Amino acid sequence: MKSVVVFRIDRRSGVATYLQIVRQVEQALRMGALEEGDRLPTAAQVAADTKVNPNTTLKAYRELERAGLAEVRQGAGTFITRSLARPQSAPDSPLRASLAEWMDRARAEGLSGQDVSDLFHSAFGAAYPGEAFGTGYAGKPEG
User: Fold this and answer.
1) Is the alpha carbon torsion for 53, 58, 60, 63 positive or negative?
2) 65 alpha carbon, distance to own chain's centre
3) Cα 75 from Cα 27, distance rounded (Å)
4) Burial 38-75, CB ≥16 within 10 A → b, else e
5) How far is residue 67's CA from residue 59's CA, in Å, rounded to a whole number?
6) pLDDT in tens, 47-91
7) Is 122 helix (H, G, I), strand (E, B) or coil?
8) Mean per-residue pLDDT for 97-102?
9) pTM of this prediction?
10) Per-residue pLDDT for 8 more than 80?
């Protein structure tokens, strides 16, 4: 069993650290980077890599367990119990390939990462009115 997730914590984001961990696991599950049976890094490993208090990681893992995405096995670690991946988001999917081509065009046209992000958020708002982008966790916006 592998552990393929490396957490990136943005202390300036205003998003609670444990939620950042939960969301990154959910994203890895949606993208197929984590699969059923994969082992998450230990709280001590996450603390060493990110300088996050181990209790914060344990809180995130408990939340993932509550959501039915992970299982804590005493003495063995925390393991993924189900996937959120969809065929449309697989690395070799036509939809993802089309998005990658669009990103290449945007870069070639001189758009910065922030320009692309702003454009995407604008298009997302038009396509999904009333839905908050980037809430990720249980579909609830922060507040």
Assistant:
1) negative
2) 16
3) 26
4) bbbbbbebbbeebebeeebbbbbbebbeeeebbeeeee
5) 12
6) 999 999 999 999 999 999 999 999 999 889 999 998 887 666 556
7) helix
8) 84
9) 0.65
10) yes
Token pair for 40: 């998450």
- Who wins on pLDDT, 142 or 37? 37
Q: Scan for tokens 């997730």, then name that residue.
A: 5
5-to-35, 104, 120, 137, 141 alpha-carbon distances in Å: 11, 26, 25, 17, 24
- By residue count, the chain amounts to 143
**Torsion sign over Cα 44, 48, 50, 52:** positive
Structure tokens, 61: 């893992």
Sequence-ordered alpha helix ranges (H) in 12-139: 17-31, 43-50, 54-66, 94-108, 113-127
5-19 burial, b at 16+ Cβ within 10 Å, e below that, comes to bebebeeeeebebbb
Q: Within a 10 A sphere around the Cβ of 80, how many other Cβ atoms?
A: 23
